[in-house]
Amino acid sequence: MMDDKLAFSLFGTTRRETEPRILKAGKLSLQLAGGNLRMICYDGAEVLRAVSYLVRDRDWGTYDPVVSDMQVEEGQDGFSVSYKARCDGPGGTVLDITAKIEADAAGRLTFRGEVSSSTGFETNRCGFCILHPIVGVAGTPVTVEHVDGSVEDTKLPDLIDPWQPFKDMRAITHTALPGVSVECRMEGDTFEMEDQRNWSDASCKTYVRPLALPWPYTISAHQPVMQQITLTISDSRAPSASQADNVGETVVRIEPAEGEGTMPAIGLIITPEEAKASLRALSEPDAIKVQELLFHFDPLAGHQGEAFADFAAIAARHLGTTSLEIAVPCQRSLDDELQEIAAAMRSAGFAPDAVMVCPAIDRQSTPPGSKWPDCPPLEDVYAAARKAFPGIRIGGGMLSYFTELNRKRVPAGDLSFISHCTNPIVHAADDISVMQTLEALPFITKSVRAIYGDKPYRLGPSTIPMRQNPYGSRTMENPDGGRIPMANRDPRHNGQFAEAFAMGYAMQVLDAGLETLTLSALTGPFGLFAGDNEPAAPGGRRPLWNSVKALSGWAGARWQRCKSTDPASVLAFQVTEAAGPKSIVLVNITPKQMSVDLSAFGSGQTTVLGPYEVKKQGAEVAL
């Protein structure tokens, strides 16, 4: 069992996640966690990522209901689960949930949920959320049955859909394995699907209550609401076609694969709030040497012209390139706003190599069915930037996430580069969900390339904690160091978890041909170095420092893709430095020991384990 010291080293907290209970019915298996289901598999193949009964508040926060009377019965032919739960809302309001889950060996699973309130209860969403996996499923045929009885033969999107690909849904059927079809039927309300890869979630989400309807809404007092999800699996294969013989394989094979390119430049973001601390960190004899410093400036956050003096002092110590990202207020003349910023920069002697501009209002998301906020035409914003900053590169895109860039596609013709960020804790913050977001990254970068072609592409800053919330009025405070969505601090940023996540992130976006990848700040809650009152390793370094240092050392080197037989556990690539040896870089993204077979590479290879030392996330990568 993991002790407190090891847990803190790995996750930045001694709090453990509750282990899920494994339930089986014939070839069907799943995890029961907190009253919800995840990793629903048939014959070893994941057919659904999750089925959850969720209640959202008016800010889209997710209630954590108190579960009681949990009863689980298991037999040879199946299992059943029942429980009650309660959500306590504002003003003394309450919502009671009664749930029943049943499964049999024939491949049928039902999850029934009923809510009632003695007080009336305000919510943005109350009901089932179904997650389909994306790897091996995106782009494949599906059949959608609509609430009016019509049936549509179509495909799950391959490129990421900015809006809902399917609406007015009653059921959806897909193929999980050759000869194995999976129907998910949804009753009790109208459902629709959104492509959660927009937010880097590794799923397509089917949820209750269309977004076009008003929210928040009220569940009336003493009027129960019932919904039911029914999963039906049809297996037409001969018995010999079973995948069961492959279950339980413990050795991950790493092999060379097609695909190669040049490693991107590595950047760090610096804000006015952290500028002085960042200057001290860069003044250390062993200061990390990245290729790019990205400075952030937001007048609406109170940033003033004096910040540029600090930026200039930092830039003077930096041997690489510098960029400035500006959240343009767009409250006065664009020329006046940007010329004032440019004048303050010149006065301070701060001369970045590039400027990325984004209207401040575009940091907020515009959900389907909502009215777009007032904003000057982006062509005018970019024209004003070119006038204020002549002779340097002007970039555009979003200071927020791919979701916003996908829904508001910027006119990129005259831009020098496109940029956006990602964040892995928008919808869920458990360890598995965060690491699974790595699966979505290749879909995001492929979608960006489909929209913007070979335009130079910058990604980040992308960190586990959320630096700004496009979906609400604020990021969530996290004083107790929990694993919570949309938090501005995350304990795992202090642990080896973040080190492994960052290296895995870099591996998953290699195909994008990025110009720059930014995975951290230099100091502060998003930084490589902790503040005075924040936990970190000796010297103030967080383990994330190891990944950023290694990646910055490989910038400009050649990489070659590797294939992993279990990419949900171990990721790998090869990198060849100038006049140096070829290294195989491995990262274990699980909290368990993994054994890796590298025999396909022969002898004479240099191996970097996990990615820097033997142990990562408490797991020894054994050769």
Strands, helices and their partners?
Layout: H1 4-11, E1 21-25, E2 28-33, E3 36-42, E4 45-56, E5 66-75, E6 78-88, E7 94-104, E8 108-116, E9 121-123, E10 125-132, E11 141-146, E12 151-155, E13 166-177, E14 180-187, E15 191-195, E16 204-208, E17 217-219, E18 225-235, E19 251-262, E20 265-270, H2 275-282, E21 292-297, H3 307-316, E22 321-328, H4 334-348, E23 354-359, H5 378-388, E24 393-401, H6 402-407, E25 417-421, H7 431-436, H8 441-452, E26 457-459, H9 496-508, E27 516-523, E28 527-529, H10 544-554, E29 558-564, E30 570-576, E31 582-588, E32 594-597, E33 606-608, E34 615-616, E35 619-622
Parallel strand pairs: 19-32, 20-21, 20-27, 21-22, 22-23, 23-24, 24-25, 25-26, 26-27, 27-28, 31-33, 32-35
Antiparallel strand pairs: 1-2, 2-3, 3-4, 4-10, 5-6, 6-7, 7-8, 8-18, 9-17, 10-16, 11-12, 11-13, 13-14, 13-15, 14-18, 15-16, 19-29, 29-30, 30-31, 34-35
What does this structure look like?
This protein has ten helices and 35 strands. With 623 residues, it is α/β, with parallel strands linked by helices. It has three domains: 20-244, Beta-galactosidase, Chain A, domain 5 (Distorted Sandwich), CATH 2.70.98; 249-259 and 558-623, no CATH class; 265-555, Glycosidases (TIM Barrel), CATH 3.20.20. The chain has a 16-stranded antiparallel beta sheet that branches. A hairpin with a 5-residue loop joins strand 29 and strand 30. The radius of gyration is 25 Å and the shape is globular. 44% of the residues are buried. Residues 610-623 have low confidence and may be disordered.
